[in-house]
Fold:
Amino acid sequence: MAAISLNLTIEQGADFEVEFTITNDDNETPLNLTGYTAASVLRKHYGASNSTAFVVTFVNRLAGIIKLTMPRASTSTLKEGRYVYDVVITSSNNLATRVVQGSVLVTPGVTL
Structure:
């Protein structure tokens, strides 16, 4: 499966969530995510040591749907600007695959 490239916008001080459907190599049929774990972080750039984690949940494992969320307590601490992120899933036999990647624009908030 190839990684989906998707750019996101996060509003400072607001709750954030987005859903993705992960597909098999045919880019049509959903990947059965039963037995998988997932992780996702946001960094200022690829080599940055500091990161902010997204909460990853499986909305529907059979349909390949995952959700990334970040509570406003976390988005409030992000500085305005561009970031990068990715989502890595790991199968039950410990094979890790990057399935989503892209840039994130954090926009400033007026009401925090």
Summary: The domain at 4-106 is CATH 2.60.40.10 (Immunoglobulin-like). The chain has one domain: 4-106.
